[in-house]
Design brief:
Blueprint lengths: L4 H28 L6 H24 L3 H22 L10 H13 L1 H23 L16 H79 L5 H28 L7 E4 H15 L6 E4 L8 E4 L1 H18 L4 E10 L3 E8 L6 H4 L17 H11 L3 E7 L3 E9 L10
Parallel strand pairs: 2-4
Antiparallel strand pairs: 1-3, 4-5, 5-7, 6-7
């Protein structure tokens, strides 16, 4: 996993706080008693800690390999901690608790695997040191204060220390996993709230603009049609007026999209069949010439009936935008697969899969934002309208995509049996 510079800097500052605390404790002990540990070697190790911390800060500011730096930092810290344990008397000392801080740091800054590896390294370093001291391969640092320890005490102490190392790794991994999950959920909730706020602002702006443009546009289109029917116009002028009328219709369609974004129509609900609505929408694309022989539509929508209770125009708008985006994503042709299914717990699922150009990862988080379009010349309204309609039915939408491999849109809607509503 990637490691942020902020996390590395936090780790360096934390180790400085711990080392400074040990230094202050040593100074207090030096003035209160002479029997604790050899302080001159202790001060030397503290100085090494500070020097390495300074080097780590420099690498953090100007380096790029943050994960590698943390790995080296934890490894050398384990060596220094082992040296502290050695000069403090091994099992007779009390510094082997410092291994736990490195395990915690590995779990928070690196990964779960790194925490277990750090626990294993701590167990190896501590176990080897204690064995070497017990079998007199390495002499005690202060032989005059050496106490005889039985093999049972050594095995018991090593077992307890190892158990503590791996238990801390296990508990920290669970904790960091829960914190990461909560952080992801919070980030997702913040993103959802941001999108909803933008939808609200865009809806209000769209409603104002649409109402300001709609009436003058209708007047212009109607006037041009009247003038076109009058005699005295040559063929070229009539063609120009036809262009005006057609462009007016196109602008009117865009205004309808803005109005749907502002306030989707929900007042007329009835029993509908989503498969029939999709088939009708497909026929509109085919008759308009936008879906030629290079495009193939597959799936079970032709043979599956999905009764639902909702607004026909909303689902026409939803299907239209999804298919339109799929066609734009397959400029050279391709296959669009549409599958409908009933899920458990009273849900229906609409799955649309194309073989188009896909969506880059950095663009995925923006696809539902108003006025953001991944296509050249797009208005950035289609996916926003889709999201608004799905939210209106308290449904969920999931978009999965990979560049050059296509996009899959899965819409899950709650299915409730309701009586037909009366038209207002």
């Amino acid at each position: 996993m990637s490691t942020r510079k902020e996390d590395v800097l936090r780790l360096i500052l934390l180790r400085l706080i711990i080392v400074t605390s040990l230094l202050i404790s040593a100074v207090i002990i030096q003035f209160s008693t002479a029997v604790f540990l050899p302080l001159n070697p202790f001060y030397s190790l503290i100085i090494i800690f500070y020097v390495l911390s300074f080097i780590y800060i420099i690498f953090n500011l100007w380096g790029k390999h943050d994960t590698l730096q943390v790995c080296f930092q934890i490894f050398f810290d384990l060596l220094l901690i082992t040296a502290l344990v050695y000069i403090s008397g091994g099992l007779q000392g009390s510094f082997y608790f410092l291994y736990i801080f490195e395990i915690i740091a590995a779990s928070i800054v690196l990964s779960k695997r790194a925490a277990y590896l750090t626990a294993a390294l701590s167990a190896i370093f501590f176990g080897v040191l204690v064995d070497l001291m017990y079998f007199r391969i390495v002499p005690h640092f202060g032989p005059e204060s050496t106490m005889e320890i039985s093999s049972g005490q050594v095995i018991n102490s090593i077992f307890i220390a190892w158990s503590a190392f791996f238990l801390v790794a296990f508990l920290m991994n669970n904790l960091t996993g829960s914190l990461q999950k909560a952080r992801d959920e919070l980030r997702l909730a913040q993103k959802e709230l941001e999108i909803k706020n933008r939808l609200a602002a865009a809806g209000e702006l769209s409603a104002r603009l649409a109402h300001e443009i709609r009436n003058p546009l209708a007047a212009i289109s109607g006037s041009v049609q009247v003038l076109k029917d009058e005699s005295g116009l040559d063929r070229e002028h009539k063609k120009l007026m036809d262009i005006i009328v057609e462009e007016s219709k196109r602008v009117s369609h865009s205004i309808e999209q803005f109005l749907n974004l502002a306030s989707p129509v929900r007042e007329t609900f009835s029993s509908i069949d989503l498969s029939d609505i999709l088939k009708e929408t497909m026929m509109l694309f085919q008759s308009s010439g936008e879906m030629d022989g290079n495009f193939h539509v597959e799936g079970n929508y032709k043979s599956t009936s999905i009764p639902y209770y909702g607004n026909v125009n909303q689902f026409k708008q939803l299907f239209w935008n999804i298919i339109k985006n799929a066609l734009k994503a397959m400029p050279e042709g391709g296959t669009l697969t549409v599958d409908f299914s009933r899920e458990k717990k009273g849900q229906i699922q609409l799955r649309f899969t194309d073989t188009g150009i896909g969506i880059a990862r950095e663009k995925m988080e923006k696809i539902f934002e108003p006025f953001y379009s991944g296509f050249e010349g797009g208005k950035g309204i289609g996916m926003t309208v889709i999201r608004r309609i799905v939210d209106d039915y308290k449904g969920r939408i999931k978009v999965s995509s990979e560049p050059d491999k296509g996009t899959e849109i899965v819409i899950t809607l709650p299915f409730e049996k309701r009586k037909l509503s009366r038209q207002a």
